[in-house]
Write a structure and sequence with these properties.
alpha+beta; 2 domains; 4-stranded antiparallel beta sheet; 5 helices
Length: 239
């Protein structure tokens, strides 16, 4: 038992040290989805944190090598100096997102050199920045791929949103495009290919259901597949 306790403590300490050192666990090259137009691939990847405690951050983007530096200006403002170098090709570019719960800023980097961004802080922003710092994210694809990924993501969620079974697209039944988007998402993230089966009604007598019986459902509506991916289950809502 003592060995297990020390092992868990060591794992937790290692995780905390990695977090403090700005070492990210996933990159654009190592995240699960391999298709830049797949569901949720429009979301940026976390790179690191900039604050007065961690004023420097270095990473390699899709186009440039970046060095980020925090510079304090006043009690209510600071500069973020973004240096881009070693451009990979003539027409490549990087898209970065900076933000926390109070700040949001997106920049495209096509030219190398220093780029200075000034952030002005309200009292609420000062409190948030002192606690959370400024999070740095990188978009993994260009505008066209990001737009297509957003479109396919909406396909997985928009449809079957009313109670009426006869209304096309927004009726109670999930339309074929919605089912396909969710099946592709499950296959991409979980490696699970769901077999298509005939749907038929089953009437179970009430006295047949006993205490401890388990009912598990799966609806291809975007939300249930997210539960599957998050939990590793083969279904979503249960009772």
């Amino acid at each position: 038992m003592q060995y297990l306790t020390n092992k868990f403590r060591s794992a937790r300490l290692e995780k905390e040290l990695k977090a403090e050192s700005n070492e990210n666990f996933f990159t654009c090259d190592t995240r699960i989805a391999s298709d830049p137009e797949a569901v949720f691939d429009f979301l940026p990847m976390y790179i690191g944190n900039i604050s007065a405690r961690t004023p420097d951050l270095k990473f390699t983007g899709r186009c440039f090598d970046f060095t980020l530096r925090y510079e304090n200006r006043t009690e209510s403002s600071f500069d973020l100096v973004v240096n881009a170098s070693n451009k990979q090709s003539l027409l490549c570019k990087d898209y970065l997102f900076f933000g926390n719960t109070e700040l949001r800023h997106i920049d495209m980097y096509f030219e190398g050199g220093d780029h200075r961004i000034t952030f002005n802080l309200t009292p609420e922003r000062v409190v948030d920045f002192d606690f959370n710092g400024l999070q740095v994210f990188q978009f993994c694809s260009g505008i066209q791929e990001e737009a297509m990924s957003l479109f396919h993501t909406l396909e997985a969620f928009v449809g079957g949103i009313s109670d009426h079974p006869l209304i096309p697209f927004i009726g109670s039944h999930t339309p074929p495009y919605m089912e396909k988007a969710n099946l592709d998402f499950i296959k991409e993230t979980m490696g699970l290919e769901i077999e298509k089966r005939e749907i038929y009604d089953t009437h179970v007598p009430a006295d047949y259901i006993q205490s401890g019986d388990f009912f598990l459902i799966l609806r291809l509506d975007g939300l249930d597949p997210m539960i599957m991916v998050g939990t590793g289950s083969r279904g979503a809502h249960c009772v």
